[in-house]
Amino acid sequence: MSDYKDEQARESIDNAKDLVIDSLAETMDIYGVTRSAGTLYGTMYFEGDMTLDEMRDKLGMSKPSMSTGVKRLQEFNAVKKTFRRGQRKHTYVAERDFFQFFSNFFSHKWEREVNLNLQAIRSAQDQLSAIMESNDISAETYNEANEVYEVLENSKPYYYWLQRMATMIRSGEIFDIVPLHPPENEQE
Amino acid sequence: MSDYKDEQARESIDNAKDLVIDSLAETMDIYGVTRSAGTLYGTMYFEGDMTLDEMRDKLGMSKPSMSTGVKRLQEFNAVKKTFRRGQRKHTYVAERDFFQFFSNFFSHKWEREVNLNLQAIRSAQDQLSAIMESNDISAETYNEANEVYEVLENSKPYYYWLQRMATMIRSGEIFDIVPLHPPENEQE
DNA sequence: TACTTTGTTAAGATTTTATTTAACGTTTTG
DNA sequence: CAAAACGTTAAATAAAATCTTAACAAAGTA
């Protein structure tokens, strides 16, 4: 057994990891998370729990970057704070269960979408109602207000549906419906 | 009926629309689509089909911005090209059915995630297999390669699941499972 | 075929976002 | 209690994305 070959092999393992780390980073980029936060997540995914200094060493970036990166990932529970015995530094661990990651991520985003838009719709409809109730407006203006009101009203079922989706995913109920493992083909 | 009040009412309608347009733009921002593309979408959502020049006038931006914005929205079928009789200019229309929008958007993104990562995993595993098959490596290195290999292998069920989710959403099958309208409570 | 009109690409300018260095406050430790 | 370690915030810098003006190419019209 040659030490040279062994070292080469270790490099190759790191290379294989990097392939996946990059892919995870690009995945997060798809959903609007910065590539650098994605790289951080990918690194933690393989490394297990890490301190900010360990992240800094691994990624060759500054500590404040690690701090803000971790913070951003925490927003949707992609990383959690952990306790490492006899360690003064804070340690963080990446969520390694992608199903859990998916649940955290999309329930969070979808709920945000629902709340944001339902609130905007509510405000807009209030405003439109006020217009329609006023007397000194033309029929044309009334109709336009009414039309917009109805368009908004008709969009509500979507948000209610999305809320149900978010709830099902957050609770894990979705996995009863779309099972983790595909159903086997029926035997004759 | 005073013309002044009517004009005021019209402004108020536009204001109500803007509230929702901003909210749609912020929604798209959540998912990593730029706010300006989101604003464009929101505008088209209310306006119906538009030419690039109409968009430019409405948003007070340059035509190339409109062109690239439309292009970006087309990537996930948020807008489609339409034909307006006797119109030489191209016209575009926003997808107004949010269920359809959701289907287009997430099936597109999820399929991209699946393909991206499964391919990276495949490459990484090939590389790791080659290492494990080589003779001149330490037991420790072998074990590390094997460990990473297994971690990747264990992540595959997630991607297969996500592919099924994407397929269900693209096909509309999801709406059989999570209905558009919530089931009524049973009568006693 | 020459002249418009339309949409896109290219280059430059501007703005926004990300990253780093430096400073600060807090906690721990000798 | 002083000194050091740690994490975060602030300010400055660097990098990236966006937008505009200008040039170009393609299609349509006279």
Describe the structure.
The structure is a homodimer of 188-residue chains. In chain A, helix 2 (35-47) packs across helix 4 and helix 3 packs across helix 4. The longest helix of chain A is centred in the middle third of the chain and has 36 residues, at 98-133. Chain A has a three-stranded antiparallel sheet. Chain A has 188 residues and is mainly alpha-helical. The first copy, chain A, folds into two domains: 3-96, Winged helix-like DNA-binding domain superfamily/Winged helix DNA-binding domain (Arc Repressor Mutant, subunit A); 99-177. Helices cover 71% and strands 5% of the residues of chain A. The first copy, chain A, has helices at residues 3-30, 35-47, 52-59, 63-74, 98-133, 139-171, 174-177; strands spanning 50-51, 79-82, 91-94. At the A-B interface, helix 1, helix 5 and helix 6 of A face helix 1, helix 5 and helix 6 of B. Chain A binds a DNA duplex (30 and 30 nucleotides) through helix 4.
| Percent in helix of chain A | over 70%
- CATH topology term of the largest domain in chain A: Arc Repressor Mutant, subunit A
CATH class of the largest domain in chain A: Mainly Alpha
- Uncertain runs of chain A are none
Tally the beta strands of chain A. 3
- Would you tell me the structural class of the helices and strands of chain A? mainly alpha
Quick gist of this model?
Two copies of one chain form a homodimer. The first copy, chain A, is built from seven helices and three strands.
